[in-house]
């Protein structure tokens, strides 16, 4: 396993669960310093058309408390190329549910041309914040 210096991943991290923890744990195994972008409430509303259960500031505090996380930053848009240009990470971690997506193919090509990699982690199919919302609403 190659060890990178600076890693980056993002998420909403609403109703923090084992799938979230798994991605952060795996990411930290690959890098010395892990930056985690937490989606703002406005961004989630914009692209998922729903408001997170847990407010942005609280989600940031939860993610900051995870021992695998070195820094938490707000994710105000989904532009991964802009994030790369700002943070200069050598690896970005993404759930494999995005692998093959046209947007991520473009991002992956751009990152590779700038000596940065994309590592896809297996999506946790039996848990998600959406599933938790559904269980709670029943």
Brief rundown of the structure:
43% of the residues lie in helices and 23% in strands. The protein is an alpha/beta fold and 138 residues long.
Structure write-up:
The chain is an alpha/beta fold. It has one domain: 3-Layer(aba) Sandwich (Rossmann fold), CATH 3.40.50. It contains 6 helices and 5 strands. A 5-stranded parallel β-sheet has the order 3-2-1-4-5. α5 links the parallel β4 and β5. The longest helix has 13 residues. It is globular. The protein starts with a strand and ends with a helix.
Count of individual helical segments: 6
How far from one another are the termini?
43 Å
**Could you estimate the helical fraction of the residues in percent?**
40-55%
What is the β-strand count?
5
Task: Indicate the overall shape.
Answer: globular
Q: Mean pLDDT, as a whole number? A: 90
CATH class annotation: Alpha Beta
CATH superfamily caption: HUPs
**Which band does the percent of strand residues land in?**
15-25%
Oligomer: single chain
Largest sheet: 5 strands, parallel
Per the CATH scheme, the topology name is Rossmann fold
Over the alpha carbons, how many angstroms does the gyration radius reach? 15 Å
- The main sheet orders its strands as 3-2-1-4-5
Please state the second-level CATH architecture. Answer: 3-Layer(aba) Sandwich
Low-confidence stretches: none
Task: Spell out the helices and strands N to C.
Answer: EHEHHEHEHEH
Total number of distinct structural domains: 1
The helix/strand class is: alpha/beta
